[in-house]
C-alpha cells in the first residue's frame, strides 16, 4: 500500500491508459503527522509502479468524512481527449480540482463555478463519452448533492 518510498496509504485508483494509473494517496511523515492528500501518476508497465508525477491537493477536507476502515474522501477520475491527445484528471477531496496530466504548464486548478457555498466534494466521475463530469458532495455537512459540469467545450473550465 505504499508508493514512491514515503509513508502513504493508497486509497483509490483510476486507470488512465493501458500503461498508466492515478493513485489517490494519504500520507504523513515524522515531522508533520497531519494527513496530506495527493494524486500520484504512475506507470503500470513494471511489477512495482514507477512514479511519474505527484500533485498535492491543497485545501482538502482531510479525514472529515472517512468511514473506517478504508473509505477516504478522496476520489479521482480521468479521461483522454483523442482530438488533442491531452489527458485530464478531476479530483474530489473537499475541493474540486482539474489538471492536465503529464503537462509542466498545468498545476491543479480549483473548480469554483456554480458550487453552492459550503459544498465539499467527496466523489467524481466522467461519463463514457467524456462530455460531462459529476461531483458528489455534502453541503455544510448536512445535505448531499451532485453537481454536473459540461466539459465538452473546455475540460479545464467546466460549466455547471
State the low-pLDDT regions, or none. Answer: 1-5
Give the overall silhouette. globular
Strand content: over 45%
Main beta sheet: strand number and arrangement?
4 strands, antiparallel
Spatial order of the strands forming the largest sheet: 1-2-3-4
Tell me the Rg in angstroms.
15 Å
- What would you call the structural class? mainly beta
Write the layout of secondary structure elements.
Blueprint (H helix, E strand, L loop, with lengths): L7 E10 L2 E8 L8 E8 L6 E7 L18 E6 L6 E7 L1 E6 L8 E2 L8 E8 L5 E8 L3 E8 L10
Antiparallel strand pairs: 1-2, 2-3, 3-4, 5-6, 6-7, 7-8, 9-10, 10-11
Structure, explained:
The chain has 160 residues and is an all-beta fold. It contains no helices and 11 strands. A 4-stranded antiparallel β-sheet has the order 1-2-3-4, with no helix packed on it. The protein has a 4-stranded antiparallel β-sheet with strand order 5-6-7-8, with no helix packed on it. A hairpin with a 3-residue loop joins strand 10 and strand 11.
Task: Please outline what is shown here.
By secondary structure, the chain is mostly beta strands. Helix content is 0%, strand content 49%. The chain starts with 7 loop residues before the first strand and ends in a 10-residue tail after the last strand.
Key structural traits:
single chain, mainly beta, 4-stranded antiparallel sheet, 49% strand, globular, 160 residues
